[in-house]
Predict the 3D structure of the following.
Amino acid sequence: MNEKAEITHIPEPEGVVPGNGYTNVVTGTGRLVAVAGQIALDSDGKLVGEGDPEAQARQIFENLRRCLAAAGVGFDEVIKLTYFLTDIAYLPAVRKVRDEFVDISRPPASSAVQVAGLFRPDLLLEIEAFAVAP
């Protein structure tokens, strides 16, 4: 992957408070890559981290990394992450893991949504991503 996508971060649009741990607006030129919501299942379909939001987040970010790589991009090209959490109290654990994968000086735009449940009761979170490929 020699080319880099042109990505612009706009953390403080006029009249909008800056985000805490995310960028308000991220734009880019290139090919859009949409990664479906990932859950904490390993390559054998087994749950990783039952009851542990940090362990589930780590597996999810690994799954995201693999999906992004399949499209020829990495976390540097991610412009948006959406977190679906069964308890918003899991967000600090998710951000801790996220910071191991993304450049925290240029974080993607993000949304966090607390949901009543996911398709299996043992899943604590799901994360989807959008990236721009060169």
